[in-house]
Amino acid sequence: MNKVNKRPQVIRDLIEVATYIAADNLDASDRFLMAAESTFQKLAKAPKMGKPCQFSNPRLAGIRQQAIKGFRRFLIFYRIADDKVEILRVIHGARDLESILDDR
Asked: How far apart, in whole angstroms, are the C-alpha atoms of residue 11 and residue 49?
């Protein structure tokens, strides 16, 4: 099993999404957070389960994506590095993904 390393922005992403969902359904918000954590753990066990992203920006090479089970529109973006999975962002798939991920 690989180690999961979440960037600080990931925590902010999770809080933002959970807060948005909680405005309509508090139980769904809790399920979202549990599903996200479950998906992080699955990525630790099988890091290549997510599909490689095809961005035009070379700085984004090597990024993979995986949908959160039960919340398919929310995508986890990550990189595999040595013995760890680095979680970069959790973003709704309808957003401008490349520009968000390229935010230095």
From this structure: 22
